[in-house]
Amino acid sequence: MARDADGYPVTRTAAGVLRGAAGTRELAVLDERISGCRACPRLVAWREEVARVRRASFRDQEYWGRPVPGLGPADARIAVVGLAPAAHGGNRTGRVFTGDRSGDWIFAALWRAGLANQPTSVSKDDGLELTDVRVCAAVRCAPPANAPTPEERDTCSPWLARELALLPRLRVVVVLGGFGWTALWPVLGAAGYALPRPRPAFGHGVEVALTGPRGPVTLLGSYHVSQQNTFTGRLTEPMLDAVLTRATELASSAGTTPP
């Protein structure tokens, strides 16, 4: 696999994403391959333009300007799946949900749930550590207007599928928002999970129990931690805390299954 100037392996097509994801056996290698992906021309152009122009308040910072990999340990029993990085958040810092108001919400909630060692995430070197949770996104590049296309979602989906497959103790997936909910179902179907029909509708607090190749996994729906939801009160801290409390309860009661 060819590498770019910074040493990341380059993937340029949807077929390449599929091959690269399927051939990965370690999360660290997957993170590298995600970071070098260039399979969606519109997203590549947008993320790199944002990184070049920069917001005035971050003018003195070097933007990441790449796809953003997940964050958290391989032994996590809980995964949190968001939509995509923010143009001046993850696309700037290189870490998922880091450096924007959505990140302020999710990491503070993870800290309150005992899943993070601190309530803030501002940069890669701020000392944040997650316990028993992996945070990732359905689409890894910052999209224009926070709106990936269905084609971009589907092109990116093998990265998410492989990331979840590389979490052998996974028992709970917290899905932030309707976009992530829609993106996750084909991923789970391809991974061998028996999916209910009709597909359960997304909603805050919706809970769906699935059986898959490594045992039971529960999906939990939550409104996204976007400013549109948090500023208007559609999503409150107690609402988010309740979902994460439920996630930790389910993860603990499910026990562990050897990989």
UniProtKB/TrEMBL annotation:
GO MF annotation: an example: metal ion binding
InterPro entries registered for this protein in UniProt: UDG_Type-4/5, UdgB-like, Uracil-DNA_glycosylase-like, Uracil-DNA_glycosylase-like_sf
Superkingdom in the source lineage: Bacteria
SMART domains in UniProt: UDG, UreE_C
Keywords from the named record: 4Fe-4S, DNA damage, DNA repair, Hydrolase, Iron, Iron-sulfur, Membrane, Metal-binding, Transmembrane, Transmembrane helix
Family indicated by similarity: Belongs to the uracil-DNA glycosylase (UDG) superfamily. Type 5 (UDGb) family.
Annotated source species: Modestobacter italicus (strain DSM 44449 / CECT 9708 / BC 501)
Domain Uracil-DNA glycosylase-like: 69-244
Name of the protein in question: Type-5 uracil-DNA glycosylase
Transmembrane segments: 172-195
Example GO biological process: base-excision repair
